[in-house]
Design a protein that fits this description.
Shape of chain B: elongated
Oligomer: heterotrimer
Radius of gyration of chain C: 21 Å
Distance between the termini of chain C: 61 Å
CATH topology of the largest domain in chain C: Four Helix Bundle (Hemerythrin (Met), subunit A)
CATH architecture of the largest domain in chain C: Up-down Bundle
Radius of gyration of chain B: 17 Å
Number of helices of chain B: 3
Helix content of chain C: over 70%
Largest sheet of chain C: none
CATH topology of chain B: Helix Hairpins
Strand content of chain B: under 5%
Largest interface: B-C, 73 and 85 residues
CATH class of chain B: Mainly Alpha
Structural class of chain C: mainly alpha
Chains: A mainly alpha, B mainly alpha, C mainly alpha
Number of strands of chain B: 0
Largest sheet of chain B: none
């Protein structure tokens, strides 16, 4: 079993999915829950074991390959089912399995009593398998397998309540929009193969393969110009891959599926649409950092879209009254931060934010699930209020999550968000004053984040108990999830649900300490996170690093803080950076506190504040897409493809063949007159022809 | 001496007359007679070629052909008799129930 | 001598062709049958000019003597009045006769005339008995080289006899 340790991480949930899929219908809820959680738990334990077992090797930037079998080998194209553990994928499997385990535990309580209990957990385990495959793959094709797999599971899980139309529609929307992104992704991979003749990430001499990133290292950097996007080089590849990321990670313009995806059960939203699947896009961009570093135009695009999405989504989130929708837009917004980080070259900071976000966003979603369950499936915040005395555990843990996401100092969100803002402010290689603009957008978003999260907390947990009102809240919207009003007092959730909340809250508090930015502490507390990842994002692969070889692309910092002693000039540079960093940190803290203050004051006074119609209706983006894309396609399909091509041409051809046969038959009928004489005449005619043939020969 | 081609020419003529007769005549027995005529034309060809090349196989073939012609005449006339019993007429144009 | 053989040939050839034409032209099948007999006899004479004695005699005995007699018996048995207005369907066939005949004659004559003017070889004196066409030669070939076709032919005749009997009997016989 230890011959292929990485494979076992992937296989455990797959086995769980298979068992639950085949036999789950006859099992008890308890058995199903145990199987589902134990497979993920096993993956988690194994991940920790392997990661910390190889910790020093990973720190060095070594990559551990695990080859299972050759999947395709045609001509110069080769794709193996082989796994790669390096610091990037190692970190990912750690937090994915850990968070997923607690979400599974939560779900055993949340989904209790549902008839499709086994189906839910089978899909969840299948999802884990796909996600782990995506992260541990060592070539683009296998990653794409996992990519598609998570898309499939997302579809299955969003449409879990398949008797509801809006759930089915949401699932289809998610799948189709993802598919559009996947198209870009596939084109990017194909172009990469076309240029580099390989789709593996790194060289593996043991198997005789070359890596695309090793190839990329030797390419020249594309210029910053709009024309570079269409030139068919690195920038094109990078942009195409990013299109895939916009689909999977819900950025502009392909974010529209994520809010609708809230139709699925809350654990699904927590796992897939907060902590794991949506971060796959960030993972992919970070993984392909070598390519992006040679395509500064693409990085600029990534940064701009990330920042724009962050702000855009935050404005919409401010105006939503469904608790899950607020969190959905919040996710989109935070994902924008991650892409902003990658776009300015701070890949490690982006991944750090993925890491911390997984904790506090999962916490917030699960907390909202607890609230929803406690409110007997009510999701509209306008009907909540004053819940803090009915659901103390939920309240306490969500309190932590709220502070973390708002960027209150010393919690995890503070460190990661602050790092991103700092890096965008000080970004090199961007034209003109883009860096400052990006920082400003990020800061504005942080302010809005604090405001809307405070609104969420205030409307839910403080104030008057609006659920006791008999008439519905003004302007009740109809997009909430499964609704059954039992009325009555809200109740706290069982331990199976509160324990995961507590664990995640602890994570949300302390997860940030592994990545304290060097600037803040003056290298006193080492930035483990960044140090761990720096090798994965180094300009040159470890083997090629030597002082004499100039680095092809300058790093964002003049010196990466490491645990080795610093030289004097490094120390001077560090002090200058430190000043900027501390200034910006203070600004971020102020923003967070001011935001919370504004939110507290405004929404305590007026919890039922009516947001502007434009924001409430999400800028009418969905309606615009419907009119511009969906309706024309429907009309074209109906009018042209169906009525014309299918009915007239294809059916016409098939029916025509039949009609033709009939006509031929009617014609041939005349030959069979029943008269012997005519038969003989034909015979003689035939004989004449044959004789004639031989005569002429 | 009479050249071979003249014999073959006569044979060809007889054959043609027989072939035309088969689909001209409407009386069943007349048709049969024309068929016999065609067979005889072929016999003539065989015998003349056999004589010119000195091969007895041709004449043996004629022997067999005559035997077969006899057998065929017997059976064919039996059929004609049964048809006549059914329809009281020897006109082949009246036997056309196999048409579509 | 030469002239004689040519004259004989022409006489019998003309007889054969004219009587064959007469088969077509007669309306009464009985007259057609009689014309056929004349044709057979003429052919028999032609066989004799080809030194095929055995065949010639067999032709008269079997063909003209047995088969044609059978025909005439059947004609008389069926006793169809000749001059009835006959139903004719597909009258167009009648007009096909001349073109078909013309084409057929053209094709066959083309072949025939390309054979050239090869003549009958004269019979060598010393090998009179071995000459092709004598009973002796046919007999020996029939029972040695061509024994299998001979036997098969006898089976064929058996089938014909049985078939004729079955087909021609009345119901309840």
């Amino acid at each position: 079993m230890m011959k292929h340790p990485l494979a076992n991480i992937i296989l455990a949930p797959l086995i769980g999915a298979a068992v639950l899929g085949l036999f789950g219908k006859r099992m008890s809820e308890r058995a199903i829950g145990i199987i589902a959680c134990s497979t993920v738990g096993a993956s988690a334990i194994l991940s920790f074991y392997i990661f910390f077992g190889h910790a020093s090797a990973l720190e060095n930037g070594d990559k551990i390959h695990e080859y299972l079998f050759t999947w395709i080998s045609v001509g110069s194209f080769r794709a193996d089912f082989s796994l790669l553990l390096d610091s990037l994928s190692g970190i990912y499997i750690l937090f994915i399995t850990f968070v997923a385990f607690w979400i599974h535990v939560f779900a055993t309580g949340y989904m209790r009593g549902d008839k499709g209990y086994w189906r839910f957990f089978a899909y969840m385990n299948l999802f884990m398998f796909s996600m782990l495959t995506l992260v541990l793959a060592d070539n683009f094709l296998l990653m794409f397998v996992g990519w598609e797999g998570v898309g499939l599971c997302s579809y299955l899980l969003i449409g879990y309540y398949f008797t509801k139309d809006f759930a089915n529609d949401a699932a289809k929307k998610a799948f189709v929009v993802n598919r559009i992104g996947d198209f870009g992704f596939a084109l990017g991979v194909m172009l990469l193969f076309f240029k580099s003749q390989t789709i593996f990430y790194f060289d593996d001499p043991a198997r005789g393969i070359h890596g695309a990133f090793n190839w990329a290292m030797h390419q020249s950097t594309d210029p910053i110009a709009w024309s570079a996007i269409f030139a068919g080089g690195m920038t094109t590849i990078a942009v195409l891959l990013f299109v895939g990321a916009t689909g999977k990670s819900a950025q502009l313009p392909l974010y529209v599926w994520l809010p609708d995806a809230m139709a699925g059960p809350t654990p699904v939203s927590a796992l897939i649409h907060a902590a794991t699947m949506v971060t796959a896009g960030v993972y992919m961009v970070a993984r392909a950092s070598s390519i992006y570093k040679h395509a500064p135009t693409a990085m600029l695009i990534v940064a701009i879209i990330g920042a724009a999405t962050a702000l855009f989504a935050a404005t919409i989130g401010l105006a939503q009254s469904d608790i899950k929708k607020v969190l959905a837009y919040s996710t989109i917004s935070q994902l924008g931060y991650m892409f902003l980080a990658c776009g300015v070259g701070a890949f490690a900071a982006g991944i750090f934010h993925v890491f911390t976000h997984a904790f506090f966003k999962a916490l917030l979603f699960l907390g909202s699930g607890s609230v929803i369950l406690g409110m007997h499936h009510e999701q509209d915040m306008r009907r909540m209020g004053g819940l803090k005395k009915y659901m103390p555990a939920t309240f306490a843990t969500m309190f932590v999550g709220w502070l973390a996401i708002s960027g209150v100092p010393l919690l995890s969100g503070f460190f990661s968000k602050d790092e991103i803002l700092y890096r965008s402010f000080t970004a090199q290689g961007l034209p003109d004053s883009w860096a400052k603009v990006l920082w400003f957008v990020g800061a504005a978003t942080a302010l809005l984040t604090a405001i809307y999260m405070t609104r969420l907390m205030v409307m839910t947990f403080w104030g008057g108990e609006r659920f006791r009102d008999s008439e519905p809240a003004p302007g009740a919207d109809s997009t909430a999830g499964a609704r059954e009003h039992h009325g009555g007092t809200p109740h706290e959730s069982p331990r199976s649900m509160t324990v995961p909340l507590i664990v995640l809250a602890i994570g949300a508090v302390f997860a940030g300490y592994v990545g304290v930015p060097a600037g803040l502490s003056g290298a006193a507390i080492p930035n483990y996170f960044e140090h761990l990842l720096e090798r994965s994002f180094a300009s040159n692969p470890p083997e090629l690093v030597s002082p004499a070889v100039p680095l092809e692309v300058p790093d964002q910092h003049s010196a990466n803080p490491s645990i080795h002693p610093l030289s004097d000039e490094d120390r001077a540079d560090l002090q200058a950076d430190q000043k900027t960093e501390i200034t910006l940190t203070i600004v971020s803290t102020l923003i967070a506190l001011v935001g919370i203050g504004i939110g507290w004051v405004s929404f305590k006074r007026q919890p039922l504040w009516k947001p502007p119609r434009l924001l409430e209706n999400k800028y009418y983006v969905d309606e615009a897409y419907d009119a511009a894309v969906v309706q024309p396609i429907k009309q074209a399909s109906r009018g042209v493809l169906w009525k014309f091509i299918d009915v007239r041409i294809i059916d016409g051809a098939v029916n025509g063949a039949g009609v033709l046969a009939g006509l031929l038959g009617t014609g041939m009928r005349y030959l069979q007159s029943g008269l012997a004489r005519s038969y003989v005449a034909v015979l003689v005619l035939g004989a004449l022809l044959i004789i004639g043939y031989f005569v002429i020969k | 001496m009479v050249p071979l081609s003249w014999y073959l020419a006569v044979s060809a003529l007889l054959f043609t007359i027989g072939a035309v007769g088969v689909f001209i005549k409407r009386n069943a027995i007349a048709i049969f007679l024309c068929i016999e005529l065609m067979l005889n034309a072929v016999n003539l060809t065989l015998v003349s070629l056999s004589g010119f090349f000195g091969d007895v196989g041709g004449q043996l073939f004629v022997f067999i052909v005559m035997t077969v012609a006899a057998a065929e005449a017997a059976v064919g006339l039996a059929i004609i008799i049964s048809i006549f019993r059914n329809r009281e007429s020897l006109n082949v144009d009246e036997v056309d129930t196999l048409k579509l | 001598m030469e002239k004689a053989s040519i004259i004989i040939f022409f006489v019998f050839a003309a007889a054969a062709v004219l009587s064959a034409l007469n088969i077509l032209l007669q309306r009464n099948p009985l007259y057609s049958a009689l014309s056929l007999i004349v044709t057979l006899l003429s052919l028999s004479a032609l066989y004799l000019t080809l030194h095929a004695e055995f065949i010639a005699v067999i032709q008269i005995v079997v063909y003209a003597g047995a088969i044609m007699v059978l025909f005439i018996f059947v004609i008389m048995l069926l006793n169809v009045p000749a001059a009835q207005p006959q139903i004719e369907k597909q009258k167009g066939l009648r007009y096909l006769a001349i073109p078909f005949a013309g084409i057929l004659i053209a094709e066959t004559f083309y072949v025939v005339l390309s054979i050239g003017k090869r003549s009958m070889p004269s019979v060598p004196a010393g090998t009179e008995a071995q000459a092709v066409g004598t009973t002796w030669s046919i007999g020996t070939s029939l029972f040695t080289d061509y024994l299998l076709p001979f036997e098969v032919t006898s089976v064929l005749i058996l089938m014909a006899v049985v078939g004729a009997m079955v087909l021609a009997r009345r119901e309840g016989d």
